């Protein structure tokens, strides 16, 4: 890995991939065809891109049950325990509707309502992602969303990975459709003969999925446009270089575009981690993916001191941040921008990815400066409640009219004035 000395003007952020003109045009064409032709268009694109010819898209109950034969009992037990952890964490996020009564009889409040329907995209390709199901479905269920629709690209035989089916079945998701890519996003947004239209689409995917989500936003809501995964490790001289190297590679194996960065004031640690990364990388099964990630987007930045290291972290605003210092809790108050913060040597990033409970759908590409992890609030909407009393209107009506006329909206002012005339 490259070892660099941080300078005052260093810029560590990458821009979000907007796709090429060709990719955007291809996605727009797919969406339009699915919108106009429904299932037949999805069937066409599934055969074209996934190599699977399907007569029906919906996963059957028999397929769900058969998937359990391919899952080890210990893995199933771990999956169920993870579900419990994630559910308990998100239960703590629930908010209640509220009303407040003023002395003049006015009632103000906020009504929190779950979304009617949500579509969850589960990526396929180089790996299966049961954890993605847990992190997207559980907060929606905690929010009390009644209709959850899941889509995921099939293999050439028209099947979904057993782990994906088992995870969905453990959560009670019944509407599961074998489709992926931009065509699946379009099906969720606009509906087809088989797929019910939803109000929001969540879940990660490739550039075509990201562009499709961006294209349908406004007709439906989306969670975020996620870029490649990233990890930043903030460490001092006390950290274990083997731990750091392993954690950096845990992100590098996701994607050749993933970013793995160490920020430290210790030159000695920087050199030891660089050596250890190369050593562990040589034995990594997914080194064909991890190697270009480390080469092109991996870095070790050496700072003058720990305070400067924290400043660099805040500039990066990383998706995942590990703090491997002697007293990590002491730095927590100084860290302003990170999607998820992992404190101490035993809080490796995969702990959060799979098991601890917090959501692993996190803001990327520096958007942690203004964005939050996927959470229960993302699956609700809020309505303001206003019940103004006669006393309040008589007391404040002229003020309201004055503000309306300040904006040149006479009809607004008269809507209040007419009540003052009638009631005074």
From TrEMBL:
What pathway or pathways are given for this protein in its record? Amino-acid biosynthesis; L-histidine biosynthesis; L-histidine from 5-phospho-alpha-D-ribose 1-diphosphate: step 9/9
Amino-acid biosynthesis as UniProt keyword: yes
Annotated residues that bind substrate are located at: 229, 251, 254, 320, 353, 407, 412
Q: Which reaction does it catalyse?
A: L-histidinol + 2 NAD(+) + H2O = L-histidine + 2 NADH + 3 H(+)
Specify the superkingdom: Bacteria
Give the matching HAMAP family.
HisD
The family line of this record is:
Belongs to the histidinol dehydrogenase family.
Identify the CDD domains for this entry.
Histidinol_dh
PANTHER family in the record: HISTIDINE BIOSYNTHESIS TRIFUNCTIONAL PROTEIN (PTHR21256:SF2), HISTIDINOL DEHYDROGENASE HDH (PTHR21256)
Q: Where is the active site?
A: 319-320
The protein's matches in SUPFAM superfamilies, at most eight in alphabetical order, are given as: ALDH-like
| Pfam families registered for this protein in UniProt | Histidinol_dh (PF00815)
Q: Which chain regions cross the lipid bilayer?
A: none
Amino-acid positions noted as binding Zn(2+) in the UniProt annotation, renumbered to this chain:
251, 254, 353, 412
Q: What is this protein called?
A: Histidinol dehydrogenase
What role does this protein play?
Answer: Catalyzes the sequential NAD-dependent oxidations of L-histidinol to L-histidinaldehyde and then to L-histidine.
UniProt enzyme class: oxidoreductase
Q: Name one GO cellular component term.
A: cytosol
Species of origin: Anaerobacillus alkalidiazotrophicus
GO biological process, any: L-histidine biosynthetic process
Output the Gene Ontology terms for molecular function: histidinol dehydrogenase activity; NAD binding; zinc ion binding
Q: How is the cofactor bound?
A: Binds 1 zinc ion per subunit.
List residues binding NAD(+): 121, 183, 206
Q: Which cofactor does it need?
A: Zn(2+)
Q: Which keywords are on file for this protein? A: Amino-acid biosynthesis, Histidine biosynthesis, Metal-binding, NAD, Oxidoreductase, Zinc
């Amino acid at each position: 890995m490259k070892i660099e000395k941080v300078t005052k003007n260093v810029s560590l952020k990458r821009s979000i991939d907007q796709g090429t003109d060709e990719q955007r045009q291809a996605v727009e064409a797919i969406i339009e065809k699915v919108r106009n032709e429904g299932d037949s268009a999805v069937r066409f694109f599934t055969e074209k891109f996934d190599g699977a010819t399907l007569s029906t898209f919906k996963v059957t109950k028999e397929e769900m049950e058969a998937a359990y034969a391919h899952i080890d009992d210990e893995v199933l037990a771990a999956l169920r325990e993870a579900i419990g952890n994630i559910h308990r964490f998100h239960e703590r996020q629930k908010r209640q509707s509220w009303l407040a009564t003023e002395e003049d009889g006015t009632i103000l409040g906020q009504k929190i309502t779950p979304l009617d329907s949500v579509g969850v995209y589960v990526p396929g390709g180089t790996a299966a992602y049961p954890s993605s199901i847990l992190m997207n479905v559980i907060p929606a269920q905690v929010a009390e969303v009644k209709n959850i629709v899941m889509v995921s690209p099939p293999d050439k035989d028209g099947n979904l990975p057993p782990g994906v089916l088992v995870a969905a079945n453990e959560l009670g998701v019944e509407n599961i459709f074998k489709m992926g890519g931009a065509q699946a996003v379009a099906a969720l947004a606009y509906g087809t003969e088989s797929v019910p239209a939803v109000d929001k689409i969540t879940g990660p995917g490739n550039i075509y999925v990201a562009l499709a989500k961006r294209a349908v936003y406004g007709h439906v809501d989306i969670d975020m446009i996620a870029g490649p995964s990233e990890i930043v490790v903030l460490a001092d001289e006390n950290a274990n270089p083997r731990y750091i190297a392993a954690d950096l590679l845990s992100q590098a194996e996701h994607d050749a575009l993933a970013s793995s960065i160490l920020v430290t004031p210790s030159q000695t640690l920087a050199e030891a981690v660089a050596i250890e990364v190369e050593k562990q990388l040589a034995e990594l099964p997914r080194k064909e993916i991890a190697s270009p990630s480390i080469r092109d987007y991996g870095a070790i930045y050496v700072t003058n001191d720990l305070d400067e290291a924290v400043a660099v972290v805040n500039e990066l605003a990383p998706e995942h941040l590990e703090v491997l210092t002697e007293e990590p809790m002491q730095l927590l108050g100084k860290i302003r921008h990170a999607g998820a913060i992992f404190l101490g040597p035993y809080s490796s990033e995969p702990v959060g990815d799979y098991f601890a409970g917090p959501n692993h759908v996190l803001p990327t590409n520096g958007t942690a400066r203004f964005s939050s992890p996927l959470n229960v609030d993302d699956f609700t909407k809020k309505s303001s409640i206003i019940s103004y009393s006669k006393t309040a209107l008589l007391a404040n009506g002229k003020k309201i009219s004055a503000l309306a006329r300040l904006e040149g909206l006479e009809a607004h002012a008269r809507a209040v004035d007419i009540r003052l005339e009638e009631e005074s």
